[in-house]
Amino acid sequence: MNNFFIYVRKSTDEPDRQILSIEAQVDELKEFAQKEKLEIVKTFIESQTAKEPGRPVFNEMLLRIEKGEAEGILAWHPDRLARNSVDGGKIIYLVDIQKIKQLKFPTFWFENTPQGKFMLNIAFGQSKYFVDNLSENTKRGLRQKLRRGEWPGWAPIGYLNKEHKIIPDPERCKLIKKMFELYSTGKYSLKDLKELMASSDLKSRAEKVLSVSMIQHTLANPFYYGAFVYKGELCQGTHKPVISKKLFDKAREIMKDKSRPKKRSEKVYAFRGLFKCGECGCAITSETQKGHDYYRCTKKKVPCSQKYVRKETLAEQISDILQKVSLSDKWKDKMIEILEKEQMETDRAGFSFSQKLKSQIKECEEKLEKLLDAHLNSDISREEYLEKKQKILNQKIEISEKLTAFEKKGGNWLEPAKNFILASNQAQITALSDDLQGKSQFLKKVGSNLLLTDRKIKYFPRGAWEILENLPVFGAEPRSGEAKIAFQKSENLTLLRR
User: Fold this and answer.
1) Which residues span the domain enclosing 418?
2) What is the pTM of this model?
């Protein structure tokens, strides 16, 4: 008998472009069989890769050979039969036990002898080496690309792949940034953003309107602040960020808040959650009795003698506190004058601050290198490596953003300080208004550790607000020395810079 099975294979991910197509292999093998006077029983065609065992068509062919339906296999080359040690071993074993009596290849000589089987084994080994080497080269190239900070795939929405680089899409990146800015306000849902982006004609790569899930995925993608995650590992990219990490973190926090179960709406008490009991430390709760709002200690820990206090009483006390830290126009003008003089001195210190940040960035880079060495030397597990790398890399990104912001503004803290002084100048307006929520928010700015004891508010002034509380006569015209002393108490204005 001279019965043969034809086996042809070309996987969709075939790395060798020179391999003939399925149709070409079949034609060549049938022509070869005719020349060699081989009887073809059946042709087996497979498009699955031979890198791993488990090919269904290949296994079916071997099963039918074991049943004696054919005595040989005709293929273009041994690498068509196997590129892994398991399948290669099966072929040689069936040759050993005479289930396969002949193997024919137009591009490879084989005879069923010890020398022939040795050469066949080498051919299978070469095929496996080719696959392993190609895989390792691909992985090595990928690792190198990741080390360079290059994303090894298609750019997300808002970016373009251009000449082996990823660059911001001039139009779409603006919409992506707007998406983050709107969502971080907390006033827009994912559905709202979907509609807004659709009306702005922001579409996916496939030119489809962005779905809610795509919006959510975009808001959770660190690629937009200059990093990316590959196989669970956070990497710093070389592409240009669209947003800051601060904005990204804000959007993530909003997303977490929105995902929490919503409580049923209740009456809003302006001062709820603002104070704690000065006697026992428990929270101050609120309730309405006979049309009046009252605040009292929850008394959950120990017996407490504190009594309730009416909303109006608290509002009056808060107004007094706000008026106490209000700044008159004359004090405002004098302080701004001193600020401008301090600005000149601060500019000289700016260079030192910039160098300090650069030193911290370099320190992070050295830590990352040592961490990678420890991982490569198997001193730490991959899980520990990824966890520590993410922490250090995020720290580096945050410091880099601080440096960028500082260099962009030139270390200019004058504007925030001016804003503080102007805000304190407006404190009296809030004090005299009926806006209880506004009073509550302003008091949080002014003081910390807010306590209620014997129906009286006690607090510790925050930072620069202590300066205003301890100023000389409210509204009096400041003398140069008094204003200077007030600023010296603020530790050279460091509190105002916050």
Assistant:
1) 329-497
2) 0.41
